[in-house]
Amino acid sequence: MNRETPLIPEMLTGLYTDLYELTMIQGYFFEGKKEDTAVFDYFFRTNPFGGGYVIYAGLENVLHLLKNFKFPQKALDFLASQGFREEFLKYLQDFSFRGEIHSAHEGEVIFPNEPVLRLEGNLMETQVIETLVLNILNFESLIATKASRIREAAGKDTMIADFGMRRAHSIASMQAARASIIGGFNSTSNVAAACMYGLSTTGTMAHSWVMSFGDELTAFRKYADLYPDKCVFLVDTYNTLESGVPNAIIVAKELETKGKKLLGIRLDSGDLAYISKKARKMLDDAGLEYVQIVASNQLDEILIRSLEEQGARIDIFGVGTKLVTGYPDAALDGVYKISENNSRPVMKISENIQKMTLPGKKNILRYTNDEGKSAGDAIILEDETARINEFHHPLFPEKKKNVKDMSFERLLTPVMEDGEIKIPIVPVHEIADYTKQRLSKLDDSHKRFENPHVYKVGISEKLMNLRDRVRDEILK
């Protein structure tokens, strides 16, 4: 899918970074490092929301931005005003990302400390794009993960719509709408995102429509006259059960005489479990079993699960604030770390052993047990070809997992070469289908909201030995 409108203006793409990235690559330039090579990994350290997994999202946007990563004259003029040197700015005139990227499939189920994106190229180009990569992948993966949890709570058949644009962090609503579909939502109220990404739109009416007329019944009738095939009434402006639902029933019957049907009513306040059950009975008693009930109002996976447990009669959930803000976790802690410099494996050493990184060029093997479920992931060196019979816990190497008789697949494949995208840009709904299929392979114990079972991720013996050797060399 080719998008006519970029996520950010192309004239600013090269500036979509932190200042220190540009400061560093200018330093590399004058230190004679512009031909040095590097490998960087993207990974995250902690599952958000106290959950057991993350949905990997944002890859298409990253590739699109990198393909158009340039410094036009307006950008160069700004950098000159910030004190960057003329020789360096001349170098940037013809700059573009010409590197190579290997990645997991967008929509993949991923876990902490797995290098799901590997970037290779010269040191300057792989360094300057760090902030862009983190900005896109961290946010979209966070929202896609939140959406998947909401889908888990709602069940597979209930419709869920993204209502979050008005509460999103500005233009991030575009990415949030896309990520919500990847995570399992059906539609969005965000018209611009629907146009850009080919999503289904959804929407009802506002309280102001009802209040702009003399009475609620007239407001419903006028709306039905204008939208006889798309009628969903907001019924809680005055009194949901005393006036809103009864007036909706009156207009629904009038629509039937015209050969039309009321699609639904929307509840936006009050005790949603109690009111939805009462409203359902009123509609059914009136012979309007086909009319659906939409619910909104500060919903998230915890409240939706509670509503389902209470037997609420809700057909469609509209989820806004707590989806697009990633509530209660404000960010995914994804990081971007160098693992190879001029073909030399490198790693970060830290007093906090959990913040030590893995050296070298790596891939991930995902193992499947005889029940067809994902059974564990092994981080390996890219050049490992021999079958691995076991992998080690990264912090406690004496702990091993036997995978001798399990089938496996490599998760990272080439997605960009010489700055050109090498995979088809597919509709977002196809990515969502992939996510659904991959989640079905994840045992339910990893999907629990409380105390999810920890998915096993380890390292091969060859990678462990390389890590230990590089660490010992650094410490000497």
Question: Which keywords apply here?
Answer:
alpha/beta, 7-stranded antiparallel sheet, 16 helices, single chain, 476 residues, 18% strand, 37% helix, TIM Barrel, 6-stranded parallel sheet, 21 strands
> How many extended strands?
21
Second CATH tier, the architecture of the domain at 150-324: Alpha-Beta Barrel
Name the overall outline.
globular
Indicate the percent of residues in helices.
25-40%
Q: Give the overall pLDDT as a whole number.
A: 95
Spatial arrangement of strands, main beta sheet: 13-12-1-5-3-19-20
Computed structural class? alpha/beta
Q: What is the CA-atom radius of gyration, in angstroms?
A: 26 Å
Strand composition percent:
15-25%
Number of helices: 16
Question: Quick one: biggest sheet?
Answer: 7 strands, antiparallel
Low-confidence stretches: none
Question: What is the name of the CATH superfamily of the domain at 150-324?
Answer: Aldolase class I
CATH class of the domain at 150-324: Alpha Beta
